[in-house]
Amino acid sequence: MMAARVHRYAVPPSRRDEAHAVGSGGAGGVLRTGEARGVARDVDEVTGAVRRGGEVADEAPEVVLRTDEVSRHAVRLVIVTPGGDPGIDAALPRIEPFAALPRLLRAGDLVVVNDAATLPASLAGRTAEGSVFELRLSGPVEAGRLFGVLFGPGDHRTRTEHRPPPPRVQEGDRVTIAGMAATVVSLAGRRVELVVRGDQDALWQALYDGGVPVQYAHRSDRLPLWSVQTAYAGRPWAAEMPSAGRPLTWDTVLGLRRAGIAVASLTHAAGLSSTGDDALDRALPWPERYEIPRRTVAAIGETRARGGRVIAVGTSVVRALEAAGQDGELRAGSGIATLRLDVGYRPRIVSGLVSGLHVPGESHFELLSAFAPADRLRRANVLAAQHGLSSHELGDACLIAPA
Amino acid sequence: MKIQGQGALVTGASRGLGRALAEQLAAKGARVALVAREAGPLRDVVAGIRARGGEAHAITGDIAAKQAIHAIAGQAQGLVGEIAIAIHNASTLGPTPLRLLLDTECEDLAAVLETNLVGPFRLTKVLAGAMAIRGAGVIVHVSSDAAVEPYPRWGAYGVSKAAQDHLSKILAAELDGTGVRVLAVDPGEMDTVMHAAAVPDADRATLARPTDVAARIVHMIEDDVRAPSGARLVAPRWELAT
Q1: Which of A46, A199, B13, B133 has its CA 20 to 30 A from that of B34?
Q2: Do A235 and B75 touch (CB under 8 A)?
Q3: Are residues A130 and A276 in the same domain?
Q4: Separation in Å, CA of A233 to nearest CA in chain B
């Protein structure tokens, strides 16, 4: 088994001020968000701008990308080709509409998506003494068990690291979550496991009556639940949206299939991307549950056998497939992904991926570097900046695929 | 489609045809999410299914409310997992006694369309994508004779059901090849609360029992040869194959 290298997922606390100073706003906080699941992403919570980590200060000045939202029907893709002669045109980055994906890939390729729906994972809580807190679910709800992170009073409009600490709770405490009686089963700092006994129907009704999607401070208005779902979302397993799939419309999915490019799915419980707590954030992403259907494993086998490419839509798909294929053989079924992906990681299953846009210094950029040389990615970002592409989580995208 | 082991969702499941469909799907081994506006009657139906050893879950929600759709779909998939069978059964006549179209308030027509057409469309939009990406699913729209025949006083309802029939056919055409089957089924005249509201003086002895109609619809779900995607089927004419 290949040992994934330990990777810096968060800006070290000692460098955090420096990281703040690099950004545009002055008082910026650093947030790891995005559709990144195998890695974190450093984003200013107020402006949404991507920040530089402290350890890359000696690198060339980065490109500044826009950070506004893009309609999912208008997303553009920067095409990055890792191999080939960098002097020839085919190896140069170019920009295409996301909807052109069917002609950007080849017959015989396979696209794999994460079909997890996004939970209303932000829930209001109250202790027996009446102190209020927020619980953010970090993964699926199973048999009445809720796993998540506690925050003090307030809401997403306050940067996570500026939120007051949650009220003190202990194992065995009775609390109220979204109006339901719950018991604290275990506690590790702000990480908590709660159990809601009794009728599961009432639990799910309360989650959807009271819960809202997890959001961060760069956007003050509330996102409705439907705005954080992909067009093929099924079971509610994700604490945050697997957003790389957001521009994948059914027109594009059916276009891919007509072009001889198969589309398969798996379910990966994409977790929280930030807690505002340095120690917790350094350990992100936490182990995440995944389930890979047999037909997806078969499709991958057939694709590889005919020399096609396996294209992951989002890093959550990379994490699930690489976790399931760690011992060399991809297995169907469910499991827990614990591996971490970084620049030194050599993918075994996945050939390329669709992702949001990321710049050097951002942890996620280093994951992309596992799929394409950093200089190619930099050149792609220069082009993206020239054409006004957005690096927002709900912005534009890139396709990194070997020729 | 084999029903054993599938996740299913039925709207309007607290009484009549919806209740019978939920009970029979559960009896065949489906995990069923039952949706209705009122919690009390729904809980009783769910309790009955559980008492007979079936798996059923109650979801309180109004299919006509835009805000409720993702909540209904999320709860259903949280409780029963992937949904392979979705039955759009909930519907409304609008105000009764039924009125001529020229006497129908515009708001009442709009409300009937919200429940009978836009609601099912929204719920399908949330559920069918996951079915199509996995390559399997059945969506059933409960239709009516009033979708085809221009019965006076059935205007709002008839218009909504005619539109839903066409919604069903267009969805079937667009999802062709994905493994998702989309059906419209006219259940015929049944002895239900809704029928009594529409035709108070009907001879109940001439009306079909919802349980018999549900059995035919369950067979249609199972029989992808005789009930192909895009079909509009009439339950009283459906021959029960064994």
Answers
A1: B133
A2: no
A3: no
A4: 6
- B133 contacts A263? CB cut-off 8 A: yes
A162 and A258 in a single domain? The answer is no
Instruction: Check CB contact under 8 Å for A233 and B129.
Output: yes
- Give pLDDT, residue A79: 95
Q: In terms of domains, do A199 and A331 share one?
A: no
Q: What is the DSSP letter of B118?
A: I
B168 is catalytic: no
- Same-domain pairing of A239 and A381: yes
To 10 degrees, what angle do helices B155-174 and B119-134 make? 20
Pick from A119, A207, A295: CB nearest B135: A295
pLDDT tens digit sequence for A321-353: 999 998 889 999 999 999 888 778 889 999 999
pTM for the predicted model, two decimal places:
0.90
How many angstroms separate the CA atoms of B42 and A343, rounded? 54
Q: Which domain holds residue A147?
A: 120-210
My answer on whether A357 and A382 are in the same domain is: yes
Question: What is the rounded CA–CA span in Å between residue B131 and residue B186?
Answer: 24
Comparing B166 with A374, which gets the higher pLDDT? B166
| B229 assigned to active site | no
Q: Could you tell me which chain A residue has the CA closest to the CA of B34? A: A201
Q: Is residue A5 part of a domain?
A: no
CATH code where residue A275 lies: 3.40.1780.10
Q: Is B133–A115 a contact, with Cβ atoms under 8 angstroms apart? A: yes
Q: For residue A65, what are the CA distances in angstroms to A388, A390, A396, B91, B171?
A: 7, 6, 10, 49, 39
Q: Which residues of B touch A234 (CB under 8 A)?
A: 77, 82-83, 129-130, 133-134
Q: Are A18 and A30 spatial neighbours (Cβ–Cβ below 8 Å)? A: no
